[in-house]
Amino acid sequence: MEYLTGVKKNETMEISQLLAESTPGDRVKVHGVVHTIRDLGTVAFVILRKREGLLQCVWESGKGEVNRKEIREAASVEVTGILEKNPKAPEGIEIRMETVRVLSTPADGQMPLPIAKWKLNTSLEAKLNYRSISLRNIRERARFRLQEGLTRAFRDYLYGQGFTEIHTPKIGARSAEGGANVFKLEYFHRPAILQQSPQFYKQMMVGVFERVFETAPVFRAEKHNTKRHLNEYTSLDFEMGFIDGFEDLMAMETGYLQYAMKLLKQKYEKELDILEISLPDVSRIPAVRFDDIKKQVSQTYGRQIRNPFDLEPEEEQLIGRYAKEAWGSDFVFVTHYPSKKRPFYAMDDPEDPRYTLSFDLLYNGMEITTGGQRIHEYDRLLQKMESRGMTGEGMEQYLLTFRHGMPPHGGIGIGLERFTMMLTGEDNVRETTLFPRDLSRLEP
């Protein structure tokens, strides 16, 4: 009989442990994957890829019990040796190899992509076709570490603000967003769809927990092929009750952004350095009305307003440019979107029902967030639906929630991959999506 009592302490050490717990001259043991080998004949520099970065090991002919021929790129190995300082090596340390135990050897001796290069200068198509290989490149991997930081900050910050994390179904009978852009499927001989949003569920849960959030995939069956759209992406959603107005939502998101940038600076400095990223200033974010900013950028940059009810991508870019030039901000909230371009549950502005108490957040001219106050009164919700020619079919449970009372509430949804794209300075959202799904890609 054997009992497990917790995490097993390993003999092998991570890079952070080598730096904090060991001194030069210590005999240490590490494991890792052979990232690349620089062979100089009697000396070879074997670079291991570990979860925390790269670690240099040095093989010397005639020293130790190491057969150089056994060490191959992409092999998983366990190395024992003497720790030494070397300012030219990654992290300023290296290990003089004494023994090597090969844990696994690649079946193919030729890598499909040059992952050991600092920049993976190959096409996006090739990177996506060999996604699990291309992400072994240190720079490619760093983007997703930062993406982890954005998600981690979202959870941590909202937990600290009294939110409850929920997990809502992704298969449903009806979409919260409406429209024809849904993926349809057969669910045990019944029609069903993949959810475009957790909107209905998170609103229903406001009546239970008051403040809820979720990080989960959403699905959009839109036949687009742009650099900013995906058919499946990760949405960071929160919904909060007992708000005084939609300004409370913008303030909460601003607090999240401040927390996220602080966390990235503290915990992800290595990745920021690898990608040469300067974090944006989010100490204060301007907010401006939809109709006012459209007129302002039209006058400032001489662009005619073609669509009075929505923002075209070029307009978003000009608004981002204006925010930077006028207010020194990479972010700007655009508020009071026209009612006809917002879902039925969006609360209309009581002072001008043509507009809603809603907003988008633009980051360097790219929309990364949509949010706003919701209609919380049952009769007003029915009136809005009736004015749009909608019925309650398929929404019975959603409407039932409002029949039995709901507090004033609202929420937001952030596109995680698009947010990461803007933070890392990429121009294609597929670069910051682990396994993109678009019109042409269903694998890997």
The helicity comes to 25-40%
Rg, Cα atoms, Å: 26 Å
The ordered H/E elements are: HEEEEEHHHEEEEHEEHHEHHEEEEEHHEH
Q: Structural class of the secondary structure composition?
A: alpha+beta
- What is the residue-averaged pLDDT? 94
Model description:
There is one protein chain. This protein has 444 residues and is of the alpha+beta class. 30% of the residues lie in helices and 27% in strands.
Topology:
Layout: H1 15-21, E1 27-39, E2 43-50, E3 53-60, E4 76-85, E5 93-104, H2 124-129, H3 131-134, H4 138-160, E6 164-165, E7 171-172, E8 184-187, E9 190-194, H5 199-209, E10 211-219, E11 232-241, H6 247-267, H7 269-274, E12 287-289, H8 290-301, H9 313-327, E13 331-335, E14 348-349, E15 352-356, E16 358-363, E17 366-373, H10 378-387, H11 396-403, E18 409-415, H12 416-424
Parallel strand pairs: 3-5, 6-10, 12-13
Antiparallel strand pairs: 1-2, 1-4, 2-3, 4-5, 7-9, 8-9, 10-11, 11-18, 13-16, 14-15, 16-17, 17-18
Helix pairs in contact: 4-6, 4-12, 8-9
List the main descriptive attributes of the protein structure presented here.
444 residues; alpha+beta
How is this structure best summarized?
The protein is α+β, with helices and mostly antiparallel strands and 444 residues long.
